[in-house]
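step 4 of 6: structure.
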Amino acid sequence: MNNQELIARRLKTLGPTYQNFYDRPLHLVRGSGTALWDADGRQYVDCYNNVVSVGHCHPRVVEALCKQAATLNTHTRYLHEGIVELGEMLVERMPGDIEICIFTCTGSEANDLAAQVARHVSGQQGLIVTEASYHGVSELTRRLSTDSYPPEDRPDWLAVIEPPNLYRGPYHRDDPEAGARYLELARQELDRLEQRGYKPAAVMIDVAWDSNGPLLAPTDYVLGLCAEVRKRGGLVIADEVQSGYCRSGKDWWNCNNYGFQPDILTCGKPMGAGHPLALMATTRDVIDDYSRHYHYFNTFGGNPVSAAVGKAVIDVIESEGLLHNALETGAYLEAGLRELAGRHEPIGDVQGFGLFWGLDMVADRDSREPLSREQLRHLGSLIAEQGVITGTSGRYGQVLKLRPPLPFSRSDADKTVAAIDTALKGFSI
Amino acid sequence: MNNQELIARRLKTLGPTYQNFYDRPLHLVRGSGTALWDADGRQYVDCYNNVVSVGHCHPRVVEALCKQAATLNTHTRYLHEGIVELGEMLVERMPGDIEICIFTCTGSEANDLAAQVARHVSGQQGLIVTEASYHGVSELTRRLSTDSYPPEDRPDWLAVIEPPNLYRGPYHRDDPEAGARYLELARQELDRLEQRGYKPAAVMIDVAWDSNGPLLAPTDYVLGLCAEVRKRGGLVIADEVQSGYCRSGKDWWNCNNYGFQPDILTCGKPMGAGHPLALMATTRDVIDDYSRHYHYFNTFGGNPVSAAVGKAVIDVIESEGLLHNALETGAYLEAGLRELAGRHEPIGDVQGFGLFWGLDMVADRDSREPLSREQLRHLGSLIAEQGVITGTSGRYGQVLKLRPPLPFSRSDADKTVAAIDTALKGFSI
């Protein structure tokens, strides 16, 4: 069916909550590695989809999926090697004392459970996130996603702190005290939370501050925030759905790059490379405490097929050296983006790490006035016309987001930089 | 690895929240149709796992999964035929005005979203469930699952009504006024809810009352409850995760068997036959209202692979006549179970429909004193030793639950009845 018909039938059956990217929605039909093809046979470089962490339709992942799906797929109340082996592989790669894996199907489920566990273990109800945060779509994680509803609807138990954005926030990269200043802002919000009658159960840190950027936060801020929350009896939850699983190029988990040890770590999309598999991992003490009061059973989470896929993804990441590729190709991409920023006024800032970069787009470099969501959507469309798929992010929807599959190559990076270059040349603010 | 080692490694890595069925946990390694095999090569009849609705590892479902997984798997912000076609196939089979499909990965996510939508659309906050209900594991759906936490922790916005259990509840099958009496109990709880300051956003009806039974409720009660909630401004949510998808043998959805029209219908596990695919479906009016304020995006929900699987499951159900099989084989199984009940005192009641049956097990038929959870676990273990896999349910864990894949055969039913017979002969209360 043609795109106009597909769009009409889609709206009729799925309703208006289903959004499309781009001015002219893409109709994708095939993927392989970092390449995608549309219904007209046009090829694209995928510089956006982290979910397919090891690349689209990786043959080893597909093989593991098919083999197990043809053998057995049932739930975790029967014994099966797969989930135990996947759990052990993950625990080997986990930071610090994290040694228990609870599998879910989505990052929302993992973050929802993490918040429930933190409230139970701390005996406190307050939760802490940043402005313009995103942590999921369940009722609880939607409340934790301040980008998804108006500020006046925020519950009293929620403390919303300033994202540590060294370009766009109140304190900048050139200020050596920026970390301490962001921390002081957070302390003030924690005081206000307690004044409203709530002590913190946990701070949930998206270790990429994805929906704000991505951001590279000051280390002293991050460590200070963890210490401050713990001093008040709360836990530290590292939401590594976006930042983890080798994305940084330096470590499996971005919390290790900042040097903080979470009590709970969540990850999601990339661990199944497109198959619904997610994880809440924690310490033995935390789970023992929680388990004395509650059980948790997720019918689909960690089933034999999901476990087979999860194991294959880890194998591919390590046998293909994708951690190292994220570092090397990430640095190469960064250099290209910085060169672009030197030539294009609307690129106000280049911020990110590994294979996760954001271009903060501005109407004016001095005032840092952000481009609008509509302008970014149009820019993304122009880049897609050049054959490269990107996304948007940021507190004001002003960030061009680049977050490709981990096998992204130098050639892919070249094409991406060239496509943005061409699009910006044809782009008027 | 042997079972003892597997159990030890499982406890170490997954922690104590992961429970096993049976005294001697089953270590399953292969499945096909209604048959399962353990690591020792022993074959079992699966009389429990509804998730694999069309049978374990159905070749057409596996083929659809593998073909799409090898072609493209991405999210719903690009156009794709699969999700639209699946949505259209579902809408064709939906009750009444339900014509919009929002896909999620799990029943928890579907029910969580349904409750959020109902609260938004009604402008009211109260939610209504039964005692010993189960609707999911997210923070919100756990609150709606009164079987999972102590009564003293119930939020003020929750009305908990008596399950319409015509065997074990306060009003029995022989009372022609039982439906009206259960309805009156519900009305009283709705009054109490309003006295606590909450008008109802919705009643969430598990149309099998699975965690209580299953139950066959009085039709006048069900219709009266829907009318009562609507009179007070609330919506009706049919949770068809357990009861729907042809389980009843009479209709795709059990709400049609009662003759009520939900505003929102959710379904889950069986629609993906083991693949994480679930659904919140609703009317155009409801989604238009919700969409004016919120978007919903579930990265994995309705991706091309999930859609391919969902389409294959519907094709198999219809081409193999599984709705009819649920009716025919269900009636045959029922007859066998009723014959058993005539010979075994501990079977206090046989209740259910289609391919979903519960044996309410009692220590004494006159007092209806339920067997304990431990006794049921042991009984299930004895039945498993006879080569048949069953489950437990019920407000007191006293119901032996039979809820097989839909291709369950007469031969399977014979083996199941014989296994229960033998187990009960060797079972002392």
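step 5 of 6: annotate
 - The domain at 3-54+321-425 of chain A is CATH 3.90.1150.10 (Aspartate Aminotransferase, domain 1).
 - Chain A has a mean pLDDT of 96.
step 6 of 6: archive
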